[in-house]
Structure formats: structure tokens, C-alpha cells
Amino acid sequence: MSDSKKFELVLNPEIALDDKNLRAFLKGKGWLSDEQYFLVDRRSIDARKFKVKVNIGLTISEIPLRHEFVEYQSATDSVLNEPKVIIVGAGPAGLFAALKAISLGFHPVIIERGKDVRGRRRDLADINKKGIVNPESNYCFGEGGAGTYSDGKLYTRATKRGNVRRIFEILVAHGAPEDILFDAHPHIGTNKLPKIVTAIRETIEGLGGTVHFNTRVDKFIIEDGSMSGVVTQEGQVHQGVGVVLATGHSARDIFNLCVAQGIKIEFKPFALGVRVEHPQEQIDQIQYNSNERGFLPAASYSMVHQSKLAGKERGVFSFCMCPGGFIVPASTSSDEIVVNGMSPSRRDSKYANSGIVVAIQDQDLQGFHSSGPLAGMEFQASIEKRAWQSISNGQVAPAQRLEDFIRGTHSPSLNTSSYQPGLESIEMSTILPKFINERLKQGFHSFGGKMRGYLTNEAQIIGIESRTSSPVRIPRDKMTCEHQGVKRLFPCGEGAGYAGGIVSAAMDGERCMDRLAQLYPAKDK
């Protein structure tokens, strides 16, 4: 690398985002010869000014270049006969906890209630085409968790919680595109994630780990204040050095089980609202100040407003914005309506969608406090069920044109939509509590002022966006990650209230397993 040169450039999108054009530009400047190679080290789009630019860092060298793994090295030794650790849930937190367990000399045993990637596809087809919800296998439950089929974004602000670069390297090692290592807002896409998730599981199994699909935890094994394992719905017992509980934000039966078995859990603030869908072309025009996107990716947005109602302030914000994406049914029961968003790798859908949600605090849950720490969960469930009761059949979702919602008028017709099960025109005020309804209106007014053209009847809101994060927290020690009241239990990831998204959940999975190994080393067993 002694002959290499580094460049920091600000370029037009048609040059920076196309390898052929970038090569021609570098040659034209005399910086790159036919015998030399270049590698992009960093890339970000700056759309703050009228003319969009791309900031790009790259290296030119006499020898071929590649993105080296500096944080991840795959384990090679089998852990088949090593001490077992039980991991409940095969989402990002559970899978990355398992990989970490192997590197630390443990045999991970993953217990997953849902099906593997291939099996999940059939159940998702049933939800979308027939409105049939399998409560054990859906957009939330199954191999890879909710992120596999309902997300693909890797951007995280939780950089202090773990090694983001290591997570990205593991994903690349299992089939993710290398550009996630240098793009400022990396995204894999839900069409590519299933193969990556499968490859990670195959690595775990190939090194001696065990994965049990279609296996639901119905009981925790606790003796003298210490958890040694779990019992499944078929009465099978799985025991180990400790238990990493990484079930995700929709495992309500697990939250109920914690209460029933005296495992302390707490209410956690969360957010709830709707998903808004615009024509992607409209968002492109607003964000890029142009009718033609050209080489630029489908435009996204991120917005927040501090709403005021009855003397109380609550945040209203965009959540999980999906440019060029789809809205999908994320219900885990047949008598509820829940929606979420996803984006394929090419982000080439003609729709843009985003959750627009209101922050919910404990004092907002009047009438639900009798449920104790599960008040937020019961509040969520009540609105999801009300949405289901409002529609005619299956997983058809209630919807309303955006300006009609602001004015409080019925929408005689609806726009076309990416939501496959179909929409039914319903006034959202009949479903949402008044305080959420009013705060959403304030938020949309604010967003319309920030993005001219955003507030339009060409957009529509679809309900209900309720699974933004877990409505509970399972308390753990800040240093050891062990439950505050039950030894050898390590609450982990999004469901336990410590992550939000693929990357932060994966980092938390690694962290919990690392702390478990420090407290209960494999070599001592």
C-alpha cells in the first residue's frame, strides 16, 4: 500500500454513483492509469443544497484493492461438545449472540418459535393473498426475526453499544454487498437478507451449534433465583450455562410468562401511529429539487415535531422510512391489524412509505394501568384489535387520504397502494385515541411546512403502525447485562428494550453473550 494515494472528492451523482463513469472521471483527471486500481472507502449523499452532491473518499493503488476484514475472523473449531448456552429467538440479537458464543467456546442452542426462511415464505404468501395469519410464523416470527422480511436498513445511531464495523463485516462474510462497509446509510434489502440470514445459521450449525425451529418456549426453569433453561410447548427441556432472552418486540406471550413466573419487567415508553404512503416520484421531487432522479437512489426523509396537547409535549416522528418500498401486514394474530414497511435492495417500487408515530408515555395510558408493567402492551393490542374490527375481512387495512385525515373528512376513494391485502376507507379518528389523532395532525402540518408538497391527498395513511419498539423493558445490570433479579438470565435485544433495528440488536446480542462468558466462563464448566 506504499504506492497508494487517497482522495477526498465532491462529485455529481452521475459520476460518484456509477463505477464506469467514476473510472472515466479519474482517468480524465490523470489520477488513474489503465494499470491502476481504485477502491471506494466512504460515500455519502448531500442533498441539503439545491444541487445534490456526493462526498466520496477513495484509494488508488498499483495493486488490486479490497475491503479487508479488520474486526471479524470466522471461528474454525467445533463447539459441538462444549458447554451449552440457550438462546431464545433467532432474530439478529439471537443469531449474533450465537456466533459470539461459538467464538467464546460455547455451544449455542437457539430456540425459535417460527419457521426457517423457506417455510416463512409460504406463511407470508398466505397473509398477503388470503389474509390468513399463522401466529407462530409471520413477518415478526421466524428465522432472522422481523428484519428479514420487513426491513433492510442498517443505519444506527447506537455506535457506543458495540462494534458496528464488526457487524457489517459478518454480514458481508455471509453474502451482503461490500458497499455496506462504506456507504453512510447502508441498506441490504429484504430480497437479499433471507439468503444472508440462512448463511449465518449454516455457519452456526457448521461449527456445532444447534437451531430448533417451530419450537416455542412455554416455561422458564428457575431454581434458587437462577435460570438454567427452558421448557418448550412439547415439554422438551433445554438447559445450559445461561439463557439469552432475545425474542423481539412482538413476543407478548413471553412478556406474560415473565409476569407469571415472577421475573421482573417494566413499562417502557414506545410509539404508535400510522404508516404514510406517497408516490416515490413525489418524494424525489421534494428532496432532490428535480423532476428526474437520474443516478440518485430513491429519496428518503427523516422528520420530527414536538407536539403540544393539554399542556403535555410528545414527539411525533418518522420511523423506518422505506424509499422505493412496500407496506406489509405485520400482525401476529388473526384478530388484529398491524402494518410495517420494507424496501428491496434496488428500492425500485413506485411508492415511498414511512411510519409516522407519536411517543407514548406511562401517563398516556389511562384505563390500562391495572395491567401493571404490561399496560403499554395492552394499549397496543386494544388499538390493533379496534383496527381489525373496523374492516370487512382478513388483513385488509384501514386507510384515509392524508389531507382528508387532517380535515377530519371521509375519503370517498383511496389511492393505489403497495399494501397487497388491500385497503378500506375508514376515518382513522374512529380507531386512534383522540390524543394520538390530534398529535399526528400537528405532526403532519409541521412536516408539510418542512417538505413542500408532502401534505397532499396523493398520499394516504394506513393503520396501524404499532410495533415500533417493545412496550416493556426487562431490567438488567448495566455492566453485566444479567437480569436484576434472576441469575444467568440475560435479557437481550429489541424485545427486552435494549435495541431498535438490525444492527443495534446484533450488537446487543454480542454484548450479552460476552458478559455471560465473563460471569460464567466456558472453561470453568
Task: Report on the architecture of this protein.
By secondary structure, the protein is α+β, with helices and mostly antiparallel strands. The chain folds into three domains: 5-61; 84-265 and 474-524, FAD/NAD(P)-binding domain (3-Layer(bba) Sandwich); 269-465, no CATH class. Helix content is 27%, strand content 24%. The chain contains 13 helices and 22 strands. The protein has helices spanning 13-16, 19-28, 92-103, 117-130, 147-150, 164-173, 193-206, 252-260, 280-288, 375-390, 402-407, 434-450, 502-519, and strands spanning 5-11, 37-46, 53-61, 84-88, 107-111, 210-212, 217-223, 226-232, 237-239, 243-245, 266-267, 270-279, 304-309, 312-322, 326-329, 339-342, 351-360, 397-401, 423-425, 460-465, 472-473, 489-491. The strands form six sheets. The chain has a seven-stranded mixed beta sheet. Strands 6-5-4-10-22 form a five-stranded parallel beta sheet, covered by helices on one side. Helix 3 (92-103) packs parallel to helix 13. The model has no long low-confidence stretch (mean pLDDT 94).
